[in-house]
Design a protein that fits this description.
CATH topology of the largest domain: FAD/NAD(P)-binding domain
Shape: globular
Number of strands: 14
Oligomer: single chain
Helix content: 25-40%
Distance between the termini: 33 Å
């Protein structure tokens, strides 16, 4: 390693500063002021990369489903060799520009240095490598030497679908990505707010993939009215990969759920992103001037919080049914596991109130927001008994809410449409069933990402896409040289 004493001489984590809250809530640009290996940040970046201990057993690999070669590219950054660092980063990760912004970094909670010091700033080093690589022109199309003559359809253009498609294209298969939305990217396009990842980063990757030969077909509602059917896919393509995500949102069946002003997060967030980009929307959902309640304390809830803040909400309350996590790693979640601890996202810095151990009992309307529209929530504090939340007597109260956003996760794939048409099996948890090779019960049909795994992290989606691509290549040619970082039967659960 470049600096064998780096973890001793530099003991603190140093990260780029986020733009001041009063400034950044006036726009939708990313919250960090500095990008890549900005000249002013290079010394700090090198110091942080130098803190990597080059462990004999790098547990950061265990934390990363992709098996990123973290000590190797930390060492290269410490030496200032960003070209080779980019090569090592891309050896295991198709899209470090996405994970460097959106992944919750389980690699950092598995960092050996993190046992008794703040862990290495792995995520920031990763983002800096890829942003510098694009700025310096290190990222170029990897065009296959020859084509195999085989055709593959990838249904869905989220991170799993894109990773699958890029790997298969580079293997020489003619690969088409079919996306039902009007633009490619899945949740990366419309579900992730601009302040978390500007879409220019997505677009430059899609440009690279198009130059390599991947075919993109947005506006293709496969299995829907006017789109290709499951039978069409099997007739036209030698293999099909379902990367359609886990898109059925979890609902909240309480009295008053039918009132106007109650929406799923994935109704609200895509609209907001479209508006930012000047795209048309119908019946825009806006938080402007409203008391907003977000039900769900995860990342999607935080995305709703940051968006509502920028839209000019009067007040924002985020409800979480679970109790507030502690500041320190729980005893039952020892290193190197990913712990459930109290975390503050950039959106939480910007405003709003976080309320824990609270459940919604009823949604009500007093008519002041319009006939049939929500005006208040009735909530209770809860305690968990036997694994179930039980209301605490005497804690019922009303909170104002003219906009309620449900951000409680997802429960599976929609079975109508292409899933039914292809005849693939779906398990009791709403996931498409697959074997150790990501193959479904229908020959030639594979599944990758949340559609087969269930709701999970972007880093898992990319890992699944890479592994599914290797299985498809093996199916088509009898063997493969594509890397397969994971197999379904050996995957640890990360949520």
């Amino acid at each position: 390693m470049a600096d064998p004493k780096g973890f001793l001489t530099t003991r603190d984590r140093e990260l780029p500063e986020r733009r001041p809250v009063p400034v950044r809530i006036r726009d939708y640009r990313e919250v960090y002021a500095q990008r890549g290996a900005d000249e002013a940040f290079v010394p700090t970046l090198i110091r942080q990369a130098g803190r990597c201990m080059d462990c004999g057993i790098p547990f950061c690999h265990n934390g990363c489903p992709l098996g990123n070669l973290i000590p190797e590219w930390n060492d290269l950054v410490r030496r200032g060799d960003f070209r080779r660092a980019s090569e090592r980063l891309h050896a295991t990760n198709n899209f470090p520009d996405f994970t460097g912004r959106l992944c919750p970094a389980p690699c950092e909670t598995a960092c050996v240095l993190g046992i008794n010091q703040p862990p290495v700033t792995i995520k920031n080093v990763e983002q800096s490598i890829i942003d510098t690589a694009f700025d310096e022109g290190f990222v170029t199309p990897q065009i296959p030497q020859q084509l195999t003559g085989r055709r593959v359809a990838v249904i869905g253009s989220g991170p799993a679908g894109l990773a699958t498609a890029q790997q298969l294209t580079r293997a020489g298969h003619t690969t088409a990505v079919l996306e039902r939305a009007d633009a490619v990217g899945g949740l990366l396009r419309y579900g992730i707010p601009e302040f978390k990842m500007e879409k220019a980063h997505l677009d430059r990757r899609l440009d690279q993939m198009a130059a390599e030969g991947t075919i993109f077909r947005p506006g293709s509602d496969v299995g829907g009215e006017g789109g290709l059917t499951g039978e069409d896919l099997l007739e036209r393509y030698d293999a099909v990969v379902l990367a359609i995500g886990s898109t059925i949102p979890r609902d909240l069946p309480v009295l008053g759920r039918e009132l106007g002003g109650v929406h799923q997060a994935m109704e609200y967030l895509p609209q907001a992103t479209r508006v930012v980009h000047g795209l048309p929307v119908e019946d825009q959902i806006t938080a402007e001037g409203k008391d907003v309640v977000i039900i769900g304390g995860g990342d999607t809830g935080a995305d709703c919080l940051g968006t509502a803040t920028r839209q000019g909400a009067r007040s924002i309350t985020q409800l979480e049914i679970m109790p507030r996590p502690g500041e320190e790693r729980p005893a039952g979640q020892p290193w190197p596991t990913y712990p459930m601890t109290f975390r503050i996202s950039s959106a939480h810095e910007e405003g709003g109130e976080r309320v824990y151990a609270t459940a919604t009992a009823e949604m009500v309307s007093d008519g002041s927001a319009g006939e049939g529209r929500v005006t208040h929530l009735v909530v209770n504090e809860v305690v968990f008994k036997g694994g179930r939340p039980v209301p605490v007597e005497g804690t019922e109260r009303r909170i104002p809410a003219q906009l309620v956003l449900l951000a409680m996760g997802f429960v599976g794939v929609p079975t109508d449409g292409v899933v039914d048409q292809l005849g693939v099996s779906v398990d009791a948890r709403g996931r498409i069933e697959r074997d150790d090779d990501f193959a479904t019960n229908v020959p030639g049909v594979f599944v990758a990402g949340d559609a087969g795994r269930g709701q999970s992290l972007i880093v898992w989606a990319i890992a699944e896409g890479r592994s599914a691509a290797a299985s498809v290549d093996r199916f088509l040619r009898g063997g493969t040289e594509l890397p397969a970082p994971i197999r379904p039967t050996t995957m640890q659960v990360t949520v």
